[in-house]
């Protein structure tokens, strides 16, 4: 994204428009506990982390560029997320203070969402160019989690990368050992997505060449890492930044499980990511680490939108003999014919049916 700078007049206009909008709504605009007279000038910032009511804002102003400020947001603003560009004011008149208040949200060019507990679409990161969907041989991917992510990503018109991590744990492709079957299935999954035309990559945090290839691919982009807990999102981000998992001084992302050193004297498996946080890549580009998920239900979408989320199905939408074809066993079904011809994998069609059934139940 071009990092366009706004002049003071533009900043003032955006924040006064949002304040006026807040006054028209039900939300109170007067925020308790803020000494309005102590606020500094309006300036641009970037949200790098969001926890509970508080947000960490990185200053984009020349004199304090890169410094972090712990901020609250005005109550008239919509929910803000990591990656948002905002207008904020520092609080207090003493030098060296590091708190502030966010007064306006600048337009987003994109956002990655996931559903909340009520099935509503909620943003998790904004202004991103790429969603890196991480999976690994361990923990084994849940059911059709990757397809669900892809449906959401297609729906949001974002660019995915399917990343198979922990390749150092992969058995040889020729292995006949029954214990290796599950891991080899994960490798087949990656091939399936590559065959559909998605960007895919195999990496390992222990194989520097693979990380170099990933760094090159993500250079200049803002990428959010998503996926199951324990697949190595935070480890990958630390490795891409050239930081050791244990280096707290360098701001290493928390890595879970029994990683070296970390677990000594502590309960095992406690260091999993709890907040979505943005890190700068040396050179150019930003990486957003997000907490692992247990499951990814989809927010409410219609059957047609679901089908659109399976990219290779698109040429066949509307081509079945019957308008209300359910693509199960109907004669003249274009999708079943495509499966027969090898143009669509049967596993993807059954994944579609599975997700549709769940959507119908909700
Ligand atoms: N063998 C191997 N282990 C890895 C690799 N990458 C990460 N791990 C290990 O996998 C475990 C989980 O890594 P994390 O980076 O915390 O996983 P995460 O996806 O961030 O997990 P959440 O924060 O819970 O979502 C740790 O013990 C890592 O050391 C890899 O490439 N190979
Ligand atoms: Mg993590
Ligand atoms: Zn059909």
From TrEMBL:
Record's GO cellular component terms: cytoplasm
UniProt region (Disordered), positions on chain: 1-39
Enzyme Commission number(s) of this protein: 3.6.1.-
InterPro entries referenced in this protein's UniProt entry, alphabetically: G_CP_dom (IPR030378), NA-bd_OB-fold (IPR012340), P-loop_NTPase (IPR027417), Ribosome_biogen_GTPase_RsgA (IPR004881), RsgA_GTPase_dom (IPR010914)
Coiled-coil residues: none
Cofactor binding mode and count: Binds 1 zinc ion per subunit.
Gene Ontology MF: a single term: GTPase activity
GO biological process: ribosomal small subunit biogenesis
Annotated Polar residues bias: 7-20
Chain ranges of the EngC GTPase domain: 126-294
Signal peptide from the UniProt entry: none
Keyword vocabulary terms for this entry: Cytoplasm, GTP-binding, Hydrolase, Metal-binding, Nucleotide-binding, Ribosome biogenesis, RNA-binding, rRNA-binding, Zinc
CP-type G domain location: 118-296
Residues the record lists as binding GTP: 165-168, 227-235
Residues at which Zn(2+) binds: 320, 325, 327, 333
Cofactor needs: Zn(2+)
TM region(s), chain numbering: none
Domain of life according to the entry: Bacteria
Compartments (UniProt record): Cytoplasm
Biological role stated in the UniProt entry: One of several proteins that assist in the late maturation steps of the functional core of the 30S ribosomal subunit. Helps release RbfA from mature subunits. May play a role in the assembly of ribosomal proteins into the subunit. Circularly permuted GTPase that catalyzes slow GTP hydrolysis, GTPase activity is stimulated by the 30S ribosomal subunit.
Family named by the database record: Belongs to the TRAFAC class YlqF/YawG GTPase family. RsgA subfamily.
Quaternary structure note: Monomer. Associates with 30S ribosomal subunit, binds 16S rRNA.
Annotated protein name in UniProt: Small ribosomal subunit biogenesis GTPase RsgA
Record lineage: Bacteria, Pseudomonadati, Pseudomonadota, Gammaproteobacteria, Pseudomonadales
